Amino acid sequence: MRLELRGITKRFPGVIANRDINLVVEPGEIHALLGENGAGKTTLMNVLFGLYKPDEGEILIDGKSVSFHDPGDAIAAGIGMVHQHFMLVPVFTVTENVMLGVESVRGPLGQQLDRPAARRRIIEISEAHNLRVDPDARVEDLPVGVRQRVEIIKTLYRRSDLLVLDEPTSVLTPQEDEELFEIMRSLKASGTSIVFITHKLNEAMGIADRITVLRAGRVIGTTTPEEASLEKLAEMMVGRRVSLVVEKKPAKPGATVLEVDDLVVRDDRGHVTVDGLDLQVRAGEIVAIAGVQGNGQTELVEAITGLRQPVGGTIRIQGKPVRHAPRAVLEAGVAHVPEDRLEDGCVPAFTIAENLVLNTYYRKPFANGPQLDRDAIEREATRLVQDFDIRTPSAFNPVSNLSGGNQQKVIVAREFSRPVHLLVAAQPTRGLDVGSIEYIHRRIVGKRDEGAAVLVVSTELDEVFALADRLAVMYQGKIVDVLDPAQATTQQVGLLMGGSRPVGIVEAEAAGGLTHVVTSGG
Amino acid sequence: MTTTAAPGGEGVSATTTSARPHHEGLAARRALRNARIRGAVFLAIGVYAFYLASSAFSTPASFLFRFFNTGQERFEIATSVGLLWLVSGLASALVGGLQLWRGAAFRWRPWLFVVIAPIVVAVFGALLDGTTANFTNVLRGSLELATPLTLGAMAGILSERSGMLNIALNGKMLVGACVSVIVGSVVLRFTGNVIVSTTIAIAAAMAVSGVLGLLLAWLGIRYKVDQIIAGTVINIGALGITNFLFLRVLGRNPEFNTPPTVAAMQLPILSDLPVVGPILFSLRPYVYIALVMMVVLTYFIYRTRWGLRLRASGEKPAAAGTVGINVIRIRYQALLLAGLICGLAGSYLPLATAGSFQMDMVAGKGFIALAAMIFGAWHPIGAFGAALVFGFADSAQALLSVLGVAVPPQLLNSVPYVITIVVVAGVVGRVRGPASAGQPYEQG
Ligand SMILES: Nc1ncnc2c1ncn2[C@@H]1O[C@H](COP(=O)(O)OP(=O)(O)OP(=O)(O)O)[C@@H](O)[C@H]1O
Ligand SMILES: [Mg+2]
Questions:
Q1: CB-facing half-sphere around the CA of B432: CA atoms within 13 A
Q2: Does B3 touch chain A (CB under 8 A)?
Q3: Which of A348, A388, A405 minimizes the C-alpha distance to A34?
Q4: Among A63, A116, B197, B334, who pairs with B187 as Cys (CB 3.0-4.6 Å)?
Q5: Mind listing the pLDDT tens digit for each residue in B37-92?
Q6: How far is B299 from chain A (nearest CA, A)?
Q7: Which of A416, A448, A463 is the C-terminal boundary of a domain?
Q8: Same domain assignment for residues A342 and A439
Q9: Do B308 and A112 touch (CB under 8 A)?
């Protein structure tokens, strides 16, 4: 399918999200779309998918002008989209989610769901493109990486000729990224065009045929990986030179702030995911935990921040045991950037200002007794919106109207704006553009230099290496090794993340039947 | 390997090297402890029942069953209250024993019925206090009284599964009741035909309730009026209008308040079965309609395309919208259907039981239907089960008050709600309703 967008303009109250955008996607092409947070990438794709009506401009498919009233029209025209925030029904099974909207039916009334038929096709698709998934699993029980596979299967099930992937890799691990690229190549080979939105420039360089950069709703230019370089792309996106490495002085660790001892935590399904874990983080150092998603990082962070009751072991912050009481934990001087920003990080329907004081609203200066001090909140919000470069027409827009990356900035701004002893940041730069990543990394290092203990959990090896003073690798609920990032290699960490230990180290873990070996270290 | 004790007093076996299963032991021990506590509770109930039994063997408890619909043949199960308590005690002790024996692997929830059912009978027997109860009537009454609740719960399930809270069941039933009486009376006068007038009366009730359902949907979807408030407005409006009609029209012109009535129906062959014939197969057609509807709805919600889309709209409308499903249309459809069912439920009250319209004759049944919906975990069959519990309590209470038993009826009436609270709070565990019920959906 050849897609052409001509002069697309989309306005929201106070923002012009897309201005006169022209874009051509050739058949069988992988077209990367880059741009800062809030540049208008998602909006443009939503226009294409019939979720928004453009104020101006037209969409041409194979030279013919089309207009979509709803996603149903776009799907019928062969467009498939994997949304930045997954569009899956949590309580449905994989099969139900995939068939939803294009159900196979049978029976005399032509109404009865034909689950076995759908199931068979899902298995076919998943085998053809190596998208491993259990068709009968409930989506709410699946890790994000697998949910994404479900989303891709959903589009393939609808026989899309053009696939839009909106930041698919921001939730994936390095291995999963590689798997996704394999899938994309295989789709491309079968003639599917792909629009690939990402913030990771090297991914765009690696897989795209052509790259288009948006800034502030406009097309800045289209280039190819051959002509471009990382630095040039970064500059096109942000409009200034960006430093791609974090500068930091050597750490000066002080007293131990966080002490985790033989911690055992279970997930919602009752499986033990943190399994006798020990960890110390000292004031003035950054400990980064690397690990493949689903090895207990989520539950570890939830336990430390008082969101989840551990089954065994102890957690102490500055010597005091942590209780299952999030407010007590945050009052003890802990900041938390949660992994799932919409679910745990903010109240999407509240305004930016309200979200920015979500953990301090009940205290001075934001409250006078039971009453909120609107002026104080407004002043603080305006300051943080400025400081953290949150792109919004005002601090009184609901967070749900922000672009994904700007939602993340709201949370980071809130958590970084008060004095803390311990900062726990899970995937702090998920979905952020290079400029913002640079900024947030500098703030994290700044927190460390102020004397806070910092625990970063990330599936991005780049990020882990950039930030860590000590690098812990988590596998199957345990810290399998703590390394010095200056000495370690990505290769070595990749292997540990996959559960294998470099030769020469005690075989205790290997006895547990760990066979998966990571081949590339990112 | 070392063993330490955590502050909670649970032994935590910790290892410095590597022992994979140490946490598994911990989790299992916790489950085992819970199992033991549960077992002990069941045993304690059993012991208490034995204690109650010991002093009640001399109090007779007789339950009378009619053999057939016609004739006087009946048989009586004459026992003593003590015996009933003894059975209850044995049942509890048995389940408690099983629980202790099988430990954490024991699936205790289904066995709860074995514990509760004899206790209910024993309590009933104790309340009878020596008089004889016609159990055929109690059971018939349970089914009949459960019917409007079941229908109401079906309406609630349809709405909430689509993502719309439907607090207005009560008002829609009330309007349905009133409309069916007026239309039924008029048509009966002109045609003299009971069947025709009943049919038209019910159809009219359904139509008007259906329109109210659409009104609720329109307010909630088009204007995003809070769905609880919109429902409350409809409830209050329904009460006002029907009161007005009763005082100004029906009360002064009794010819508008003499609707046809729906009699019990003897199902061929089945109704001649001994004992069960009179209980199950000689009821009003409404009961069978409700049962059929329960089956049909279960099929539609869980097995069909429309049901899948309905549930998706109630769980995550954005996901439904992005695969091209018209969430708004589904919500209108669901509320229309719910309204139609409410009309049917409303018509039951005057046409099947009272024989005329009275002020506020629904008396909160719409809200009880909502309770049945929640108790039944938003599933038609579960909701029917819950409605039966409520129906039984109602029916038993009616009998006890006829027999002049010295229990305040209010106390007995409250039993089903206490059960609901207990069940919803604890026993059922995490019952989850549709995730997006009550939240307006915005289409791009
Ligand atoms: N529904 C909406 N209502 C109002 N403003 C909106 C809405 N959706 C997006 N915007 C605004 O439009 C602009 C573009 O947002 P968009 O989500 O397209 O950015 P993006 O390029 O996808 O960014 P990110 O990389 O952070 O996901 C932002 O300023 C955002 O605040
Ligand atoms: Mg986006």
A1: 9
A2: no
A3: A405
A4: B197
A5: 889 999 999 999 999 998 888 888 888 888 887 777 888 888 888 999 999 999 99
A6: 9
A7: A416
A8: no
A9: no
* C-alpha A305 to ligand 1 mean position (Å): 30
Q: Is A110 exposed, middle or buried (0-12, 13-18, 19+ CB in 10 A)?
A: exposed
Are residue A301 and residue A255 in the same domain, yes or no? yes
A394 within ligand 1 shell (Cβ under 6 A): no
Question: In the predicted model, is pLDDT for residue A506 greater than 70?
Answer: no
- Residues of B (50-69) whose Cβ lies below 8 Å from A: none
Average pLDDT, chain A: 88
> What CATH number is given to the structural domain containing A490?
3.40.50.300
What pLDDT, on the 0 to 100 scale, is given for residue A511? 40
Select from A51, A92, A266 the Cβ nearest to the Cβ of B322.
Answer: A51
Question: Does the beta carbon of A352 lie inside 6 Å of ligand 1?
Answer: no
**Rounded average pLDDT over A500-522:** 42
Q: Is there a single domain that holds both residue A230 and residue A176?
A: yes
Tell me what ipTM this predicted complex has.
0.82
- Whether the CB of A294 sits within 6 Å of ligand 1: no
Chain A residue with CA closest to B310: the answer is A100
Within 10 angstroms of residue B273's Cβ, the number of other Cβ atoms is: 16
To the nearest whole angstrom, how far is the Cα of B431 from the nearest Cα of chain A? 13
Query: Which residue out of A262, A343, A476, A505 would a mutagenesis test of the B interface target, given it has the greatest number of B Cβ atoms within 10 Å?
Result: A262
A49 and A196 part of one domain: yes
A89 contacts on B by Cβ (under 8 Å): 311-312, 315-316, 319-320
CA distances from A298 to A88, A89, B400 (A): 21, 21, 57
The 8 Å CB, 24+ separation contacts for B24-29 are: B24/A272, B26/A264, B26/A311, B26/A312, B27/A266, B27/A270, B27/A272, B27/A311, B28/B104
The pLDDT value given to residue A21: 96
Domain shared by A381 and A434, yes or no: no
Chain B interface includes A91 (CB < 8 A): yes
B114: which residues sit within 8 A by CB, 6+ positions away?
A: B91, B94, B95
Calculate Rg over the CA atoms of chain B. 26
Q: Are residues A346 and A373 in the same domain?
A: yes
Q: How many angstroms is it from A13 CA to the middle of ligand 1?
A: 12
| A130 and A186 co-located in one domain | yes
Q: How far is A32 from chain B (nearest CA, A)?
A: 22
CA–CA gap between residue A461 and residue A307 (Å, rounded): 26
Which of A42-56, A231-245, B47-61 reaches the highest mean pLDDT?
Answer: A42-56
Over range A501-519, report the average pLDDT.
41
What domain range includes position A198?
3-238
Is A512 in CB contact (< 8 Å) with chain B? yes
pLDDT at A501: 64
Say whether residue B444 is in contact with chain A using an 8 A CB cutoff.
yes
Q: Are A39 and A185 members of one domain?
A: yes
Name the band, by pLDDT with cuts 50, 70 and 90, for residue B132: confident
CB proximity under 8 Å: A 140-159 to B: 154
Out of B5-9, B156-160, B411-415, pick the least confident.
B5-9
Structural domain ending residue among the three candidates A382, A416, A450: A416
Pairwise CB contact (< 8 Å): A272 & B432? no
DSSP bridge partners of A30: A194
Ligand 2 centroid, distance to B171 Cα (angstroms)? 45
Report whether residue A404 contacts ligand 1, using a CB cutoff of 6 Å.
Answer: yes
Q: Which residues of B touch A321 (CB under 8 A)?
A: 7
In tens, the pLDDT along B364-410 reads 899 999 988 988 889 999 899 889 988 888 888 888 777 777 677 77
Q: Taking phi first (over 0 means left), then psi (-120 to 50 degrees means alpha), and beta for anything else, what does residue A481 get? A: beta
b/e per residue, A372-395, with b = 16+ CB within 10 A? ebeebbeebbeebbeebebbbeeb
Ordered structural domains, chain B, with CATH:
24-128 (no CATH), 138-425 (1.10.3470)
